[in-house]
Amino acid sequence: MQSMDEIYQTYARTVYKFLLSKTQNEDIAEELTQETFYQAVRCIHRFDGSCKLSTWLCAIAKNQLRAYQRKHPINESIDAHEDLTGISTEGEIFCQIERVDLMKKLHSCPEPYREIIYLRIFGNLSFREIGEIMGRTENWARVNYYRAKERLRETVQEDRGSEEGEQFRLKKEMEENE
């Protein structure tokens, strides 16, 4: 087993990016990363090797995040955050969608698609890192990210189609009334 210093040096960035993808707040992500490693030191004897160390650490991080969220309920609007669609180059596909609409569409995505998109777009994690966090392979993360992106794209196109159809119907109705 590696020393805790080596473990920290190896996995701190992954845990931080995971938490950043969940919080979209650097300070909170940093604080929770420190708390995650503190808990890992306290509970290292419970790590049985049945999963990757990064998976175990991200599970601790997720628990720390939940505890933080219970203590600090979210009351701020999404507008308080930076433009979420500009965080990564892959976020460009979402530029046409309003931020609130984007978050609604992402929230309605089934797991694991939602988690993968959050980690990739908001956490700016590599597919390898996402695979590690989710206990899967890099290829699995890449394929499921593509599927999630396609599902979102179809949802946006369907919404646009229904909006355009409604606009066409209203225009036709107005012409008939003239």
What does this molecule look like?
This protein is mainly α and 178 residues long. It folds into 2 domains: 68 residues, Rna Polymerase Sigma Factor, Chain: A; 97 residues, Arc Repressor Mutant, subunit A (Orthogonal Bundle). Helix 1 packs antiparallel against helix 2, helix 1 crosses helix 5 and helix 2 packs across helix 3. The protein is elongated and about 75 Å long.
Keywords:
178 residues, mainly alpha, 7 helices, 70% helix
- Integer count of domains: 2
Largest sheet: none
Strand content: under 5%
Shape: elongated
Element pattern in H and E: HHHHHHH
Instruction: Could you tell me the CATH topology label of the largest domain.
Output: Arc Repressor Mutant, subunit A
What would the average pLDDT be, to the nearest integer? 77
Roughly how many Å is the radius of gyration? 20 Å
CATH class identity of the largest domain: Mainly Alpha
Low-confidence stretches: 75-97
Termini Cα gap:
80 Å
Output the number of helix runs: 7
CATH homologous superfamily of the largest domain, by name?
Answer: Winged helix-like DNA-binding domain superfamily/Winged helix DNA-binding domain
Task: Please state the second-level CATH architecture of the largest domain.
Answer: Orthogonal Bundle
Q: Give the helix level as a range of percent.
A: over 70%
- The SS-based structural class is mainly alpha
